[in-house]
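Sequence only, no structure available. Ideas?
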Amino acid sequence: NPVGTSVWLVNVASGAFTRFTLDKSDNRWPVWSSDARWIYFSSNATGMYNIYRKRADGSGTRELVRRSPYLESPLSISRDGRYLLSNHLSPQTSNDIWYLLLQPSGKASVFVSTPAFESDAVFSPNGKWVAYVSNENSPSNYEVFVAPFPPGGSKWQVSSNGGHWPIWSDDGRELYFVSGSTLMTTKVTPGTTFQFQPPEPLFSFRTPENFR
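Reply:
I predicted one. Tokens follow.
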């Protein structure tokens, strides 16, 4: 493909598509900012996939957010707009999760880094927890975990029969994820420690592709 992959916007009401990135580089993995003013994405414009952002209305040019010698892609932005979670592909430790302080310093720090493959990280609405996926138990089996933010050493395994793509309810009282071809939910009890009930199935669906 001579023009690479582009980020597109879809108007949900009208169904209209608008091309958001117009250059010939490969642009992938878009994430909205919490105030919907910016779209963060990964681009190989300088060779390696690094994190950029561009105004959601399409005005202006893209801005480099994070430069790294390894592949970086955005995952989630905290509701207060201060932190960004990202994938960090390391030749030593596979895929890790980092977090970037967007304001004011731009400092990047490790959230979780192990020989396992960690990804799909997402902030809870209150910014106190991060749900993510890891195959630390078995290379062929991914499960959903939750850890405090900023990282403090603790973590809880939420799923027990495989899990992908966790997402929080808007009030943070439920955590959803996909297990096989079933959408699961677990109830979360607000508090200073992470407390949750055993996951329950919501409904099954036909999966369009094989999961990791």
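The chain has no helices and 19 strands.
Hope that gets you unstuck.
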